[in-house]
Amino acid sequence: MLAAVALLALSFVAAGQESGKSYSLPPGSFDVENFAVSPGGNAIVFTTKSDDDGKQNVFVFNLKTAAVKKVATAASAHVFAVPGAHPFAVLAGTNLYFLQDDGSSDGPMEIPNTGDTLGWGHDGSDFVFTMDKPKINKDSEDYNESGFTALGILDVATQKVHPVAVKLPAYHFDVLQTNGQIFVTDNSMDNDKPLIVNVYDMKGKHIETRNDLYGIVFSPTGRYYLPYVFEAGLSFRVRDAETNRPVLSFENNGNEEVAEPRWNPRIDTLLLVEHLDTDEKGNTTGQRLDVLGIPSGKIMKSMPYGIAQWAQDGKSVVIFRGGKFIFEDLNP
Q: Which of 18, 35, 131, 135 could be 152's S-S partner, Cβ–Cβ 3.0 to 4.6 Å?
């Protein structure tokens, strides 16, 4: 249950960087875990690491008014930037909150959510989330605790949820922002075999079944897609969704692995990747961040490691590092 708490305003000073702007949080005040940047670039919502009681805090950082507001506490919180009337969404268990840049909120709206991911149409008027769990033996090799048996499609205006049954077991969904199609993976995530992918529209109507895809992490228009696994020792590939042929492949050997790839929200040909190094004890250390050009494979920009997200206009990578949110422009 997401509990609203009193608002706490904190002032800070914004400082410029050679590659773009940076905004400093009060020293030592926050241990940022994840964040999202509003579509207008005027605010950042972020979560802190779990407190001693296991809960997380959610803050809104308004870049124009130079204030940080604590807006919520939850057992587990996830934050998203959303197009349309509500710049941010906060998901916690079965509760959904919509936030403005100044920290004011609409909610909570209770939804039968079972996961930690939201998908939405291009204007933010409809949300997709997972509901129900696979009714299969937990000792079975097919069991996956993150699986689901249905999707919920929420109409924000009416707050009504339309349930859509999917085949068992289902593990992942992805919503294309350009046309609102929902791609649902309905079998195990084996990197060596094509997946069974069912495609639905935002009303829940089944459009087609595809048996030729190896992953469904799509670029904004669906032109390219990524596989699931990005581990050290496995080649990193980007595929063309129309032909299903690899258009970019490079070795991912040794202890270093490419993790958490994220497509530019506006440009199909730009991909943000993290480079991590794992030692013999299993400890992982961030090495750097790269923006890859597709299909050339050229590194368009390389940056020091930090918690990173794309700005919603696609023109910058925003990195939290050293107590600051740094906007790294692609073309400084």
A: 131
CA distances for 268 relative to 28, 57, 178, 261, 293, angstroms: 37, 33, 11, 13, 9
Length of the chain: 332
**Residue 110 near residue 128 (C-beta atoms within 8 A):** no
Inside any domain, residue 149: yes
**Closest to 48 in 3D by CA, of 35, 38, 61, 37:** 35
Cβ(323)–Cβ(27) below 8 Å: yes
φ and ψ at 201, to 5 degrees? -95, 180
pLDDT tens string, the chain, 332 residues long: the values are 333 333 333 333 333 333 579 998 877 678 899 999 999 899 999 999 876 777 888 999 998 887 899 888 888 899 999 988 889 999 987 889 999 998 888 878 899 988 888 998 888 899 999 988 766 666 666 555 667 889 999 999 999 999 999 876 787 888 988 888 999 987 655 556 677 889 999 999 999 998 888 777 888 888 998 876 555 556 678 889 888 888 887 666 555 556 668 899 889 999 998 877 777 777 777 788 989 999 888 889 999 999 999 998 999 999 999 889 999 998 75
DSSP β-ladder status, 307-310 and 299-304: unpaired
- Could you tell me if 161 and 152 are in contact, meaning their C-beta atoms sit under 8 angstroms apart? yes
Residue 168: count of CB within 10 angstroms of its CB: 14
Q: What range defines the domain where residue 274 resides?
A: 219-304
Strand 182-185 relative to strand 105-110: parallel, antiparallel, unpaired?
unpaired
What gap in Å lies between CA 127 and CA 119, rounded to an integer? 6
Tell me if 58 is assigned to some domain.
no
Domain boundary pick from 213, 236, 262: 213
Total structural domains in the chain?
2
Same-domain check for residues 173 and 253: no
- Cβ atoms of residues 151 and 180 within 8 Å: no
Return d(Cα 27, Cα 12) in angstroms, integer.
9
